[in-house]
Amino acid sequence: MIVALTPNLSLDRTMILDRPLVLGQLHRVTGLTVAAGGKGVNLARAVRAFGGQVCVAGVVGGFNGQHFRALLDAEGLDSVLEDGDGETRECQALLSGGHPTEINEAGPLYQPEAVARVLSRLPEGQVVVCGSLASGTPPDAFLELLCGLDRPVVDSSGAGLGAAIEAGASLIKPNEHELAALTGSAALESARDLYRRSGVQVLLTRGERGAAFVGEEVWEVEAPQIDACNPVGSGDTLLGTFLWARQGGQPVPEALQLAVASGSANAMLGGPLRFRAQAARELVTQTRLLKPAWT
């Protein structure tokens, strides 16, 4: 079981525009998708696509929270959700050619009582703490949350990644910008140094170039060449696939190759709602596995 604990769940609205985005001008929407969102939900979709057991956990609120519950139920994803104050945030993705324009609300303030209720109901399994923190979350509160879990996986940024290192997380998943903010460098060697100092494994995502894993083993995988339709959620899909594969006993190199192929398939097919495991499996042969010479 993989438990996707998401501190700042959302309603995701993806809008296809009739022409390239121009600020200050009228645009018409030619296609609209509304879905339960947040990094943990995208991760859960990938795990389920491969036949794994997964559960989405977090706090929702208001009419948007009711909508979120209904959409998640309609997808058949298991959940542990608690009601809190305020409205679950909305995140907008505008597609008009090229990379999406994303507009994300901040979301409700941190609600410790509701979070405690969620934590008390989590099923047994690998907990993955996914995404941004709720507004106003005290750094010490997030650190305490992580310390109360059994070596969670953490996919966050900024102070969230720092807390993950301090708490002794089993693995973090930064992108290159997040790694640079954490260590001062986006180079793979900085991830290796971080692992040596902390014992926390690093799954470094590199966008269209692929990903790398740094732990007792060090591997890089170059992504296949694809025509990207919508890359939103590709990192979440990559992480979900990697964790599913590792839980199933796959060695790190093979798990990383499948994970990178899944991230590419997500971008190629148009996002997590359209992701298919078979498309990822078909792309695996187009990935390239590398072992850095300095290992």
Which labels suit this protein?
ATP-binding, four-stranded mixed beta sheet, alpha/beta, single chain, 295 residues, transferase, ten-stranded mixed beta sheet, UDP-N-acetylmuramoyl-L-alanine:D-glutamate ligase, phosphofructokinase activity
Write the layout of secondary structure elements.
Layout: E1 2-5, E2 10-17, E3 29-37, H1 39-49, E4 54-60, H2 62-75, E5 78-83, E6 89-95, E7 101-104, H3 112-121, E8 126-130, H4 139-147, E9 153-155, H5 159-167, E10 171-172, H6 176-183, H7 188-198, E11 201-205, E12 210-214, E13 218-222, H8 234-247, H9 252-269, H10 277-283, E14 288-290
Parallel strand pairs: 1-4, 1-8, 2-6, 4-5, 8-9, 9-10, 10-11
Antiparallel strand pairs: 2-3, 6-7, 11-12, 12-13, 13-14
Molecular structure report:
The structure is a single chain. Helix content is 38%, strand content 25%. The protein is an alpha/beta fold and 295 residues long. It has a domain at 1-110: 3-Layer(aba) Sandwich (UDP-N-acetylmuramoyl-L-alanine:D-glutamate ligase), CATH 3.40.1190.20. It has a ten-stranded mixed sheet with strand order 5-4-1-8-9-10-11-12-13-14, with helices on both faces. The longest helix is centred in the C-terminal third of the chain and has 18 residues, at 252-269. GO terms for molecular function: ATP binding; phosphofructokinase activity. Keywords: ATP-binding, Kinase, Nucleotide-binding, Transferase.
